[in-house]
Specification:
With 251 residues, the chain is α/β, with parallel strands linked by helices. It has nine helices and ten strands. Bound molecules: adenosine-5'-triphosphate (ATP) and magnesium ion.
Length: 251
């Protein structure tokens, strides 16, 4: 059997007395469409932070294609192909959309990440950035300052930045959080159109999105994996319904 793309073994993390991640055995397969769900405070973001190397586990392991990367830092994991978005947006709000994406592409290529000096501006980086904006239907916004964009479009720019790292694994922590419902379809459409070869792990509280998008769903409760299965299995699981789905629109 081939190793999963990304795997955790007995991954555990405490914050003081709080066990935010308890003995989590998780696997993400190549090209997966996988959702991570669970109540507020269940430990979803913490697990993503552990996968991305933002924080270190108290015990347990993270493996990428069978290689132990538990001790590998965040920047190095990005180079290994693990990219993410955040629950709250972290863009350079005073810069243009194109500049934000340019910085990410330039960082990946290891060239100077500045468009400000025209002499240092790289056509290849600009072209790739524009191509990404085109993919996300943001071309018309390329020259606009991020702070001038509606929030939904700002979140699309974040997606563009994560894609600029040309990841094999994309971790999406509530990509549509805070986006008004009238705008949220632009995010969902973009997620639907992500390249199929990228493994996507999405955290979201919108059960319609989750059940439509995911081929596999992992439910976390109190830091532990409560259930994992296909959407059909998870939707039919009476215990999952009792602890989580019962509280949502799907209940
Ligand atoms: N840096 C930290 N220091 C202390 N406690 C933390 C820290 N980060 C998270 N926690 C706690 O760990 C638990 C899990 O938090 P986490 O953010 O992973 O939950 P979540 O499932 O993402 O919730 P939500 O759906 O609200 O985003 C919570 O009790 C939270 O308060
Ligand atoms: Mg969270």
């Amino acid at each position: 059997m081939t190793a999963p793309l990304l795997e955790t073994r007995a991954l555990t993390r405490n914050f003081g007395a709080l066990l935010a991640t308890r003995e989590v055995d998780f696997r993400l397969d190549a090209g997966a469409r996988h959702a991570l769900i669970g109540p507020n405070g269940a430990g979803k973001t913490t697990l993503v932070n552990l996968l991305a190397g933002v924080i270190s586990p108290t015990r347990g392991q993270v493996l990428l294609k069978g290689r132990d990367i538990t001790g590998v830092g965040q920047a190095e994991r990005v180079k290994l192909g693990i990219a993410r978005t955040f629950q709250i947006n972290r863009l350079f709000r005073g810069l243009s959309v194109l500049e934000n994406v340019y910085i990410a592409v330039a960082e990946r290529m290891g060239v100077a990440p500045s468009m400000f000096r025209p002499a240092g501006r790289r056509t290849d980086v600009v072209n790739e950035s524009m191509h990404l904006l085109d993919t996300l239907r943001l071309t018309a916004d390329a020259g606009r300052r991020v702070s001038e964009l509606p929030y939904g479009r700002q979140r699309l720019v974040e997606l563009a930045i994560a894609l600029a790292l040309s990841p094999e694994v994309l971790l999406l922590d509530e990509p549509a959080a805070g986006v008004p419902s009238a705008e949220s379809h632009i995010i969902l459409d973009a997620i639907d159109r992500l390249p199929p070869e990228i493994a996507v792990l999405i955290i979201d509280h919108d059960m319609d999105l989750v059940f439509r998008f995911a081929q596999r769903i992992t439910v976390m409760v109190s830091g532990a994996v409560f259930a994992s299965g296909t959407p059909r299995e998870i939707g039919a699981d009476p215990e999952v319904r009792a602890v989580y789905l019962g509280q949502t629109a799907r209940g």
